[in-house]
Amino acid sequence: QVQLVESGGGLVQPGASLRLSCAASGRTLSSAAMGWFRQAPGKEREFIATVTWASGTTYVADSVKGRFTITSDDAKNTVYLQMNSLKPEDTALYYCAQRSVGKANYDNWGQGTQVTVSS
Prior knowledge:
With 119 residues, the protein is mainly β. It has strands at 2-7, 10-12, 18-26, 31-39, 46-52, 58-60, 68-73, 78-83, 92-100, 108-109, 113-117.
């Protein structure tokens, strides 16, 4: 089992930037891709971005494209979510997740890190 630990959340003002980190430990060779999701109170979980370990291919949801970027550091088994020009509607609990090799869905989740955007 791969353990995922998110960090980097916090309280920021509108327009600010944050970089979230997700460190993976354990059986990381079983991991095919990593993704970021978020869930705001009273709303469904929303997909944000994903990166494939083998190819480095990334995909970012249209809702945050142009403001959010996902990157990975293979040597550190860490995935990052750079968030720029943050808006109050970006306030949510942000989760990273892993999709195991051979699996179609994300099957391992971190505990989440809170991002609050408020003036």
